Amino acid sequence: MFKILIPVDFTESATNACRYALHLGATLPQAEILLLHCFSDYLLQPELDDPLNDGGLGSLSPGSEIITDRVLHRNQLDEQEKLESLYQEMQAEARALGQHIHLKHAFLSGLPEDVIPDEINRFKPDLLLMGTKGEDNVARSLFGTITTKMVEDAKVPLLTVPEQYKEHSLSRVLYATDFDKTDAEALTALMHLLQPFNSEILCAHIGTEDSERDDSHKMEQLQARLYAALPDHNLQFAILPSEDDVADALQELVAREQIGLVAVNNHQRSLFSSIFKPSLSKKLVLEAQVPLLVFHSSEKV
Question: Which family would the database say this protein is a member of (predicted)?
Fold first, then answer.
C-alpha cells in the first residue's frame, strides 16, 4: 500500500495537489491518500496591539471570551464542512479512477508546522505532497512558512505541485545532480518511487565551460557507482555547460526534454541553496511549471 499525505487549506493549489495525487494513485496497485487539515484560528493568538477591542472588552474579559468561543466554534464548524466537502469531491473522483484508491481525511487542531510532522510519524506516508501558490504567493508558500519547513524537517520525500500545473505525466523525470556523495542513494530512492510509472530518468548536471573536464570525471564516477549498485538501471546522463544560472539552465532543459518532474536531493547544499533562492525558484517552479520532488537522505554531508 503506497501512502500519500496531503495537507490541505481549501485553496485552488491544494485541490490541484489532491487531483495530482489521485492520478498518481491510479497507476498504483493500492494507494491510501490522507487529506489533512490543520485547524489553527488566529483568535487563539494573544493580543499584540491594544488590549481593549472596539467594544472596550479586554482579551481576558468574560464577554470577550464568550464572543471568542462562539466565533471560534463557528470557524471550526466551517472548516470541518469545507474538509468534508473536499473529501466528498475527491472521493467521487477517486471512485471514477478505480476501487484501489483509499481516501481518508483528518481534521486536527494545531499549527501545520507542528501537526504535519506528527502526522508523518503516525501515518508513515511514502510521500508528502503539497500544493504551491501562484507567482504572487510563491515567496510565502515556498520560503516563508510551511513548505520550506517541511523541506528542512520532513523525513519522507516531499513533492510540491504548482497550482497552474495540470498535467499528470511522469514519463520523463529530471534528477539534478551536483555530484554529491549521496546521489546514488537518492537516485535509488527515486527509481524505487517511480517504478510503477515506468519513467525515463535523466540525471543531469549544470556546470560551466571551465568545469567541463572535471564534471565529466565526476559524472563517470557517479555512473560507475550506479552501475555497481543497480546494473539494470535505465538512467540517462548529461552534462550541460551553461553561463546562465542553475534555474535558467534547468528550465530550458525541462522544456527541451519535456520533463514532467524535477527531483533534487536536500543534501546537495550548493545546488539546493541556489535553486531555493527566491529569484531562482520563481524561474524553476513557476515558469517551468513542473512539480519538484525533494528527497531527504539520512547520510550527513
Answer: Belongs to the universal stress protein A family.
Pairing of strands 158-162, 292-295: antiparallel
Summarised one tens digit per residue, pLDDT across range 50-61 is 444 544 545 545
Domains and CATH numbers, the chain: 2-50+57-162 (3.40.50.620), 172-295 (3.40.50.620)
CB neighbours of 232 closer than 8 A, spacing ≥ 6?
none
Contact 26, 101 (CB under 8 A): yes
Sheet containing strand 158-162, edge to edge, reads: 101-109, 31-39, 2-7, 127-132, 158-162, 292-295, 261-265, 172-176, 200-207, 236-241
Angle, alpha carbons 30-155-226 (nearest 5°): 80
pLDDT tens track for 14-55: 999 999 999 999 988 899 999 999 998 655 554 444 444 544
User: Can you say whether the dihedral through the CA atoms of 47, 50, 53, 56 is positive or negative?
Assistant: positive
Of 236 and 73, which is predicted with more confidence?
236
Cα–Cα separations (whole angstroms), residue 36 to 103, 106, 115, 210: 11, 5, 9, 48
- Cβ contact 177:223 at 8 Å: no
Residue-wise DSSP of 101-148: EEEEEEEEES-HHHHHHHHHHHH--SEEEEEE--GGGHIIIIIISHHH
State the maximum Cα–Cα separation within the chain, in Å, rounded to a whole number. 74
Residue labelled with grid coordinates 466565533: 71
If pLDDT is split at 50, 70 and 90, which confidence band does 300 have? low
- Of residues 121 and 290, the one with the higher pLDDT is 121
